[in-house]
Specification:
The complex is a heterodimer of chains A (504) and B (98).
Chain A: H1 33-59, H2 63-80, H3 92-102, H4 110-134, H5 155-166, H6 170-183, H7 185-205, H8 210-231, H9 254-270, H10 276-293, E1 306-307, H11 308-325, H12 330-343, E2 355-356, H13 368-378, H14 383-397, E3 398-401, E4 404-407, E5 425-426, E6 431-432, H15 433-445, H16 449-462, E7 465-468, E8 471-474, H17 479-490, H18 493-499
Antiparallel strand pairs in A: 1-2, 3-4, 5-6, 7-8
Helix pairs in contact in A: 1-2, 1-4, 2-4, 5-17, 6-7, 7-8, 7-9, 7-17, 8-9, 9-10, 9-11, 10-11, 11-13, 13-14, 13-15, 15-16, 15-17
Chain B: H1 2-5, H2 9-18, H3 21-40, H4 58-94
Helix pairs in contact in B: 3-4
The chains are: A mainly alpha (504), B mainly alpha (98).
């Protein structure tokens, strides 16, 4: 039973009665003056915290500065030197009631516990305000200077060593591949592609690595081509690929053709290999023929399902092949960009949609797991359009806070259920593993060093890196995730080489 | 009767002790233990579920989940508790409760 602190009559407990502090009998405060004083002080401190938050949002003054300089002195003043109810009449019986009745003979005044609770809450608040903005500091990587010609991120050495080892030790690779294929057969294939592209970048950074990396690249390419021949195109696709027929016949997947062509292209760009030349020429000719025959100059990766990711990778492969073979498809590239702008751009964001039917009807809106890589590949086709896509993606789905960063899978104006491409979505933050991984590629490609460093900080914070014998892997990732990180850490020289003396 | 009446004061005294800097430090140290155990036993290996790659067994999945929770406690809650203990001690020294 609770009694009013002013008239002493029993208080009726109604729903939401805690929201009102006046007694229904006498209209006075139903609590003791000491209680009301504590509540008023707590409200003032909360108000001070709110001011700090507003200063952070509006004036850009970080909590790490405003809390110790403003909130702590203010709170200490409110706690110990300020009496918000000093003009209210003294109620000696309040103190008496607190110590004699409510405390039931307690030798510790109730007010002490109240003060201690307030101090404790204040301490926790201040500690959180100091630590949370600073938590990224132990994980913040040192990036090489931007002007460095051979700027390789420090993690590249360890990641490359771990990835190459998988292609030297078949038993180890089988364990990794089995784990990935149980979730998504595509990851087995993409892990190969990203590794070959990354090793090619490293060879251009450090030509002395060719002796070690070229045989590994060849082994991966040969094994992939052999597997495709033996198992068919469905081996690297998800099971739903068998549900219906491809619209364009004979059935082929742009997913495989684009990435294999880019593997062959970058391999020949590093050092010519005559056996690969006809394979590259044949596959690129097939890609172009099928894209040109389709209504929106894009062809299917799955039955009646065209993916922007796959088609932009294919465009990059054609562009690399142009460089290797001395051909020129710039007219087709211009036509493709025009068609894409007219048919494949999401109205709300201006971003390219991620998937659409063979006829060009959008199936999905923009997705992080697609747009980051598409923007990177489009740099070889139309630099200005690619940069615009990156800027829009950064605004719509890139998130930075407290020195860390991640990427969402979908913009606010387009939402979709979680799927195998997005990976698990962290609730509240909406952080997507798939989108965040590929955001590394785009951030590096467009030289967004601030975002790249913040992404790197996040992955060191929550990716659980494991270093062993000079090899590095992220326990929260898998082989394809680590290969994407490796690629993002070293990319640059291949695109630069392709863009040298670009055909007009 | 008077002595019996004073018995309930003990929980309140205990409560004051629990709200002390020392108690906060003890909670911080205890909160760090699960992470240290997980780290020593190599549970970090089982965290691949974050990217959608499920570990081989349900036990590994559970250990991975425990590891992630204990890690976040270690890097977020433990430093906050330790800092808060220091701040509370400082506040009590500057403004003694008399």
């Amino acid at each position: 039973m609770k009694r009013c602190g002013s008239c002493g009559r029993e208080l009726k407990m109604r729903p939401f009665s805690a929201l009102s502090n006046t007694c229904e009998h006498c209209g006075q405060s139903r609590y003791s003056k000491a209680h009301d004083t504590r509540v008023a002080k707590a409200k003032l401190i909360l108000l001070g915290f709110g001011v700090c938050v507003i200063l952070d949002i509006l004036a850009g003054i970080p909590a790490i500065i405003s809390v110790p300089l403003l909130l702590v002195p203010f709170s200490a003043f409110v706690c110990f030197r300020y009496d918000p109810l000093k003009d209210a009449p003294d109620e000696e019986q309040d103190v008496k009631r607190e110590t004699d009745e409510s405390s039931a003979g307690c030798d510790v005044p109730r007010a002490s516990i109240g003060n201690r609770l307030m101090l404790l809450a204040l301490s926790l608040l201040v500690a959180a305000a100091i630590w949370i903005p600073a938590v990224h500091l132990p994980f913040k990587p040192q990036l090489p200077p931007p002007t460095s010609e051979a700027a390789v991120e420090p993690l590249a050495e360890g990641l490359a060593a771990a990835q190459v080892r998988l292609w030297v030790d078949p038993a180890l690779r089988k364990i990794e591949v089995d784990k990935m294929r149980s979730a998504n057969a595509e990851w087995d294939f993409m892990g190969r592609s990203f590794l070959v592209w990354a090793l090619a970048e490293r060879c251009l950074h450090q030509p002395e690595l060719k002796a070690e990396y070229l045989p590994v690249m060849d082994r991966i390419i040969d094994h992939t081509l052999q597997t495709e021949r033996d198992e068919g195109l469905y081996h690297f696709l998800m099971p739903y690929a068998r549900r219906g027929p491809f619209v364009q016949q004979p059935p082929r997947s742009q997913f495989l053709d684009g990435e294999i062509s880019l593997m062959l292209g970058v391999r020949c760009l590093i050092e010519d290999k005559p056996e690969y030349r006809p394979l590259l020429a044949g596959r690129v000719e097939t890609i172009l023929r099928r894209m040109k025959a389709s209504p929106v100059l894009c062809t299917e990766s799955y039955p009646d399902e065209c993916w922007m990711f796959c088609n932009t990778v294919a465009l990059a492969a054609v562009r690399v092949a142009d460089k290797v073979q001395g051909t020129d498809n710039s007219d087709f590239f211009r036509q493709w960009v025009k068609t894409a702008k007219e048919n494949l751009v999401h109205e709300g964001t201006g971003l390219l949609v991620s998937s659409f039917t063979y006829d060009g009807q959008p199936l999905d809106g923009p997705e992080g797991s697609s747009i980051w890589m598409s923007a990177h590949c489009l740099r070889l086709i139309d630099e200005e359009f690619a940069r615009d896509q990156y800027r829009r993606a950064r605004k719509e789905i890139g998130v930075s806070a407290c020195g860390m960063a991640y990427a969402r899978e979908w913009p606010e104006s387009w939402q979709s259920p979680m799927d195998v491409d997005s990976g698990p979505i962290i609730p509240i933050l909406d952080a997507s593993a798939g989108s965040s991984g590929l955001a590394f590629v785009a951030a590096r490609s467009f030289d967004d060093r601030e975002y790249f460093q913040a992404l790197q900080t996040s992955v060191d914070f929550a990716g659980f890196p494991i270093e062993e014998g000079g090899r590095l892997k992220y326990a929260a990732s898998n082989q394809v995730g680590d290969a994407v990180l490796l690629y993002s850490a070293v990319l640059g020289p291949v695109w630069e080489k392709v863009q040298e003396e670009a055909p007009r | 009767m008077r002595e019996a009446d004073k018995q309930p004061s003990r929980p309140r005294g205990l409560l004051l002790k629990l709200l002390s800097p020392r108690a906060m430090l003890i909670v911080a140290v205890l909160s760090a233990q699960p992470y240290l155990v997980g780290q020593l036993l190599g549970w970090r290996e089982y965290t691949s579920f974050i990217c959608g790659n499920l570990p081989a067994t349900d036990t590994q999945l559970a250990l991975g989940l425990i590891y992630v929770v204990s890690y976040l406690t270690f890097v977020l809650a433990v430093p906050i508790l330790a800092l808060a203990a220091a701040i509370l001690a400082l506040l009590q020294r500057v403004f003694p409760e008399s």
